[in-house]
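Deliverable D4.2, example record:
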Amino acid sequence: MRVVKEAEERRNEILDAADELFAQKGFDGTSTKDILEMVGIARGTLYYHFKSKEDIMDALIERYSDRLLSAAREAAADKRIPLNERIIRVVMALNISTSGNGKEIKEHIHKPQNALMHQKIQKVIITSVPPILTEIIREGIEQGVFSTPFPYECMEMVVIYLNTVFDDDRVTMKNEELITRIQAFVFNLERLLGAESGSLSYVMQMFASEDGDSDESDE
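Output generated by the structure prediction step:
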């Protein structure tokens, strides 16, 4: 047991060093030698834990994703919270622009040299988030709030749209364009879910903090 614990500690030291170096120099600009020197280990020790630099990146992405997804699952499972509030909390937990660990992650993945990290995190979100949201939508169907035969597919469409159009690394919009996109998103989301017109206006809350950031940058 003692050896396993030491191995896990060493693995985390490597990840912490890589995390710092990727932030400073980018994934492409960081070499395995840089990581070795920062941790103070031999090359053989590094390769005992990780097959390659990309393997280290994958482990970091898993660590980031675990933080985001665990918070989202916790919000989705708390049935003491009203349905609409849970949807907001789940999406906000996944919002890498504003969540607790999100700013750190965003600084990493939105650097050009970290494009592969960005792509891989997006893949995790697109595959892992729809099932979490689907469970809430199914509850809404049981309660008569929503009416759709395709709850999973609807959430898949929503997650893909959110992570494409509202990702400021992919699409640059003026503030008025963003507001129009948000309004269109809510309008179409209600129709996707078979919800009453205007019943999902609370979804606008998800974008409130980002609007604040946009206003500041426009000034």
